[in-house]
Amino acid sequence: MNMPRCGNKDRIGPETKRRKRYALQGSRWRVKQLTYKISKYPTRLTDDEVDKEVQRAFDVWTKYTPLTFTRKKSGDVHIDVRFERGEHGDGDPFDGRGGTLAHAYFPIYGGDAHFDDQEIWTINSYSGTNLFQVAAHEFGHSLGLSHSDVRDSLMAPFYREYKPSFELHQDDIRGIQALYGSKEEESGTPSTTTSAPSRPLDPRVGGDDEFCKSPQIDAIVTTKNGKTYAFKGSKYWELLDVGVASGYPRSISEGWNGVPNDIDAAFTWTNGKTYIFKGSEYWRLNNMDVDSGYPKPISQGFKGIPSDIDAAFVWSGNGKIYFFKGDTYYRFDPAKKPPVSKQYAGGKRKIKMWTGLPESGIDDAIQYTNGYTYFFKGDLYWRFNDKQFKVDDTSDPPYPRSVAKWWFNCDSGQIRTLSLKSGDEDTAPKERGDIPAGSKRDAGRAALREGGENGARKTASSAHTPVLFAISVLVWKRMI
């Protein structure tokens, strides 16, 4: 008995601590009206049959999101669908029947989906390989979904046999709505569809013009209710996985009664309380409400921590609180006496120990909801690999990246770069509509492979090995 398996490297978040559920690759399409074309058809099915099955596969995702998919016969499109044999120009050749069935690219790498023409593609049949279900899975990758660890979901690594009455699993629905919202949310009517267990998705088309021209934040924090807020001066923004929530910026004095402007740093502790710092004082909050009796002196509640700090966050590496000031940092452990040990007291520890971060200091930091730690300075940010204790150096585009572009969804024309030094710029790519020209990477491929339960299983290509292609399409989209 053979069980087809998608060979794309499983991306299931913070390793062993992750709940069983969908996984997001990290990139998404900025537009809701997507186009596709079938530039090369298979030899064993008619063009009309393929057109209908491919549209059915896209409709699987349309049913639960505001996304639409329009087929074009030629010209530039978001997703190019092709049936190919052997080497077909993307550096990942097909190997005939029973091997690699298909592969797709995530949005940041163009979204295209390729199918092995030597497979026996079938329609409404238990024999051969069901085109509709395979295409629906691959298009999930094209939209930004990685593999789920829910066994019965469409995006599970293993493909199931043909299902005459196919329905999208609730886990898949939650995953796709975490990226694009629900159809009801887009239309403004009450939602009856199960949505992602996270903050509501109501993204702006672009970032706030004022912020985009001077993209530097004072502080960023995720509160107990799961919402992430960025602060600058007298204003604050709610950040979504897809950009900035509508209706922002707002005044700190209106939304955070009792919190001053121009704050220095903020973090949320494991008890759900959020702590905001400015100068020599700090405030304790329950979500956005200041607890009575605050502010208090930092010297009273956080003995050993200096005034006028630059950043504060809880590091996932050990669950301790870290404070940064200038080129130094402090580790605070409330369970210990003193909470700041001798080796961390008095600015003895230098930020250069955090490999890859700017040694002169940072503006703020946060352990984000996806499990990564992010550091900010000026208009740039870095993603930190907590396990390797260094800035992530395997991502493309590399870090540092633009805060305005990737966190606030600013258009390239809105961004005024405030680079730290020459060579650190994260310049937005020149765009031709929604599809700028460029190259794809092997890291974006989602390949479907097949192997016997008792036989050797083909392994996927390394998800970190870049393969450059001379003629292909690259779409840089927001992926923090």
Keywords:
2 domains; Hemopexin; 480 residues
Level-1 CATH class name of the largest domain: Alpha Beta
Global shape: elongated
What is the second-level CATH architecture of the largest domain?
A: 3-Layer(aba) Sandwich
The whole-number mean of residue pLDDT values reads 76
- How helical, in percent, are the residues? 10-25%
> Which stretches of 5+ consecutive residues score pLDDT under 50?
6-20, 189-206, 413-480
Calculate Rg over CA atoms.
24 Å
Please provide the count of β strands. Answer: 30
Put simply, the count of helices is 8
CATH superfamily of the largest domain: Collagenase (Catalytic Domain)
Describe the main β-sheet briefly. Answer: 7 strands, mixed
Number of domains: 2
Strand content: 25-35%
Structural description of this entry:
GO terms for molecular function: metalloendopeptidase activity; zinc ion binding. InterPro entries: Hemopexin-like_dom, Hemopexin-like_dom_sf, Hemopexin-like_repeat, M10A_MMP, MetalloPept_cat_dom_sf, Pept_M10_metallopeptidase, Pept_M10A, Peptidase_Metallo. Belongs to the peptidase M10A family. Helix 1 packs across helix 2. The protein is elongated, with a radius of gyration of 24 Å. It has eight helices and 30 strands. The protein is of the alpha+beta class. A hairpin with a 2-residue loop joins strand 20 and strand 21. The longest helix has 16 residues, at about 45-60. The protein has two domains: about 1-190 and about 435-475, Collagenase (Catalytic Domain), CATH 3.40.390; about 210-405, Hemopexin. The strands form seven sheets. It has a seven-stranded mixed beta sheet with strand order 1-29-5-6-4-2-3, with helices on one face. Strands 9, 10, 11, 12 and 13 form a five-stranded antiparallel beta sheet that branches. Strands 14, 15, 16, 17 and 18 form a five-stranded antiparallel beta sheet that branches.
